[in-house]
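Quick one:
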Amino acid sequence: MKSSQESLQKRGLASKQEMENISSLSQEQLIELLHSDCATTHPQLATLQNTEPIFSLVKEYADNQLILWKALICLSAFGLKDCKDFLLTFVNDKTIIGMEARRSIGILI
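Output:
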């Protein structure tokens, strides 16, 4: 994840302090980080390498529905097969998570 962090820093998408302390960020701070629209306003950043921090956050905070929802929204900006495959794992969910997964997949198609 270090290389992804350095990549984000170089592009000005996250401050050095944010990336160094990502593991110590509060859940509210992580939500704000996921709320960023960098991938949608900078399509060149939609790379598999840049999805790694998002997938890591989802694994670590799988029980936090808000972080999961924000992560799914964020992944909809990445037109990558890995993102679509990940989103497909949530399409049958009967909550807002499933609704977001279906919406995000619709964007990717």
